[in-house]
Write a structure and sequence with these properties.
This is N-fatty-acyl-amino acid synthase/hydrolase PM20D1. Its EC number is 3.5.1.114, 3.5.1.14. The protein contains 15 helices and 22 strands. With 478 residues, it is α/β, with parallel strands linked by helices. A six-stranded mixed β-sheet has the order 3-4-8-5-9-19. A hairpin with a 2-residue loop joins strand 6 and strand 7. The longest helix has 17 residues. The two termini are 43 Å apart. The structure holds the ligand CCCCCCCCCCCCCCCCCC(=O)N[C@@H](Cc1ccccc1)C(=O)O and zinc ion (ZN) (2 copies). The site of one zinc ion has 5 residues, from loops.
Length: 478
């Protein structure tokens, strides 16, 4: 029989302490996961052998999860996994933890150790997926396994959704899981996914790390620009070619970024909050943003990560034209990927872009687009946000600044927007700028200690979700 009531839950709180044997087993399990090259290439095109192997792997690594009677496991879209952990109190709305199994490709060149070796060196586990996002896949299942071994019975039901094609838009994984849950009429209290970290060293001269929880996510517009001209012999070229016209259009887009939308947004509030953490003269500048805001905005524009938080970004990602050295090409095409700031819409961006290009010879074709995700609540009543604050406070007592922000990329969680209004994107890991560059880049790695702490965080979080919320007094909510 299930225990019920908060008194019981408090009494049965399980400390997040793991034996030496468990700690070795958990890092070895992560290494094994990294060694399976679950690469996504294009929508619908992924390493299916590796994805199938991964499915077998988690069954072996987490036997208790798979044999527990109150946990239902389903494979969705052939390689994605959905776990439903039935809690003892059906009056509590369930929540969902998310992560993705797939990774972006990685060639050996440029890596200190082969990207799919999962080698441990100097206290770090190296490889593709160690930060994005097999760490979360494994940490969620690992925390649950350890809780189950300790006979923990959750009070609030929760789901675990592990997509297999997040890196190529989630069409066959997250979208299918979402459709399944919608068909079942599931409504969720909140979701926790990737795209937020404890940021260390991202703001020049600021020594203090802070947690960034993404409460929204940028929209996206993939726009193909095309110029058609009459083809001909290169020995007598026209004054302008399709390539030249298109190159000029693309250059105008790069030279004229979309407007800075910071206004009185969260980044400005964060800087005001942090003002006294800086030494002179930055402290004076940040304490007087009414005067210095234009200067600060210009400085932030120059930082590529901050720039991405402040505006809709413009990235020319593909450019194709020409077939032969002596043929004037008839067609030139360029694809531009815009990441839309939460206070703009697809339509607004499209109009601004057309005005900037201002050339009737350039045609615009929307390849695909979606609007930014709305802000999830981050007030006192927002259960998911408050649980993250509470868990941060106990696992990272040194962190006393938590900033709600928007995710500059996209995550699988956007496919679940009609199941909940509370989508929080946060991984409890310290990240420095060089770690950030390793995500989709070279030498991605996680320290063994950071991974253990991530497991501990989830272990605590699941238990916090079963207890009455307590306020987190020493944290500044921005
Ligand atoms: C005040 C200082 C601020 C410093 C800000 C630092 C920001 C750090 C945020 C960390 C972001 C980490 C990103 C992880 C999630 C990336 C997910 C991703 O790459 N998704 C793909 C999904 C996709 C979508 C559509 C087609 C294909 C793939 C993406 O491209 O967005
Ligand atoms: Zn990811
Ligand atoms: Zn990624």
């Amino acid at each position: 029989k299930y225990p019920t009531g908060k008194e019981h839950q408090r009494a049965s709180r399980i400390p997040s302490q793991f034996s030496q044997e468990e700690r070795v087993a958990m890092k070895e399990a992560l290494k094994g996961a990294i060694q399976i090259p679950t690469v996504s290439f294009r929508p619908g095109e992924f390493n299916t052998t590796a994805l199938a192997e991964f499915g077998e792997y988690i069954r072996k690594a987490f036997p208790t999860v798979f044999k527990t009677s109150f946990i239902k496991h389903e494979v969705v879209g052939e390689y994605s996994h959905l776990f439903t952990v039935q809690g003892s109190d059906s009056s509590l709305q369930p929540y969902m933890l998310m992560a993705h199994i797939d990774v972006v490709p990685a060639l050996d060149q440029g890596w200190e150790v082969p990207p799919f070796s999962g080698l441990e060196r100097d206290g770090f586990i190296h490889g593709r997926g160690t930060l994005d996002n097999k760490n979360s896949v494994m940490a969620i299942l690992q925390a649950l396994e350890l809780l189950l071994i300790r006979k923990y019975i959750p009070r609030r039901s929760f789901l675990i959704a592990l997509g297999h094609d997040e890196e190529v838009s989630g069409e066959y994984g997250a979208q299918k899981i979402s459709a399944l849950l919608q068909a079942r009429g599931t409504q969720l209290a909140f979701i926790v996914d990737e795209c937020g970290f404890i940021l260390d060293g991202f703001i020049p001269n600021l020594k203090k790390p802070f947690a960034m929880i993404s409460v929204s996510e940028k929209g996206s517009l993939n726009l193909m620009l095309q110029v058609n001209m009459t083809p001909g012999h290169s020995s007598a070229p026209p004054k302008e070619t399709s390539i030249g016209i298109l190159a000029a259009a693309v250059s105008r887009l790069e030279q004229n970024p979309l407007p800075n939308m910071s206004g009185n947004g969260p980044l400005k509030r964060l800087l005001q909050q942090l003002a006294n953490e800086f030494s002179f003269p930055t402290n004076i500048v940040l304490n007087n943003l009414w005067l210095f805001w234009p200067l600060v905005r210009r400085l932030m524009d120059r930082n590529y990560v901050m720039n991405a938080l402040l505006r809709t970004t413009t990235a020319v990602t593909m450019f194709n034209s020409g077939v032969k050295v002596n043929v004037i090409p008839s067609v030139a095409q360029a694809t531009v990927n815009f990441r839309i700031h939460p206070s703009q819409t697809v339509q607004e961006v499209l109009e601004l872009v057309k005005n900037t290009v201002a050339d009737d010879r350039v045609q615009f074709h929307v390849l695909n687009a979606h609007e930014p995700l709305p802000d999830s609540p981050s007030d006192d009543q927002a259960l998911g946000y408050q649980l993250l604050l509470q868990t941060l406070q106990s696992v990272f007592p040194e962190i006393n600044i938590v900033a709600p922000a928007s995710c500059i990329a996209n995550t699988d969680s956007r496919h679940y927007a009609n199941l909940t209004t509370g989508i929080y994107r946060f991984n409890p890991i310290y990240v420095q700028p060089q770690d950030f560059r390793s995500i989709h880049g070279l030498n991605e790695k996680i320290s063994v200690q950071a991974y253990e702490t991530q497991v501990k965080f989830i272990f605590e979080f699941i238990q916090n979700a079963d207890t009455e919320l307590e306020p987190a007094p020493h944290q500044h909510e921005l």
